[in-house]
Design a protein that fits this description.
Layout lengths: L2 H19 L6 H16 L5 H18 L7 H20 L3
Length: about 100
């Protein structure tokens, strides 16, 4: 698995957290998303097919919920799509 890929995903996660941080005092959803994204960064260290499947589901759900706020968090929307696609690609590279 490419370390460069993981570092790019970490950067995208940090960009999401930075953008969402502006709204954490107004929105419990922002707090929840930030907390999950922090955990996701940790989970990148030890990916398995099963963990990636679970992460893809959660990222997909986050993406769907965030659509309502897309004009406020465009970078997060873009990055969630990137992260989901990256995870889906990585899943095929992982042993069963």
């Amino acid at each position: 698995m490419s370390g460069t890929g993981i570092e790019e995903v970490r950067k995208k996660i940090d960009e999401c957290i930075e953008e969402l941080s502006r709204y954490k005092f107004f929105s419990p959803e922002a707090w929840t998303a930030i907390d999950y994204l922090e955990k996701l960064k940790e989970q990148l260290k030890n990916l398995t097919k099963q963990s990636v499947q679970e992460l893809v589901k959660v990222i997909d759900e986050m993406y769907k919920k965030a659509q309502v706020y897309s004009s406020f968090i465009p970078k997060t929307i873009e990055n969630l799509r990137f992260i989901k696609e990256w995870l889906e690609k990585k899943m095929s590279e992982l042993p069963s």
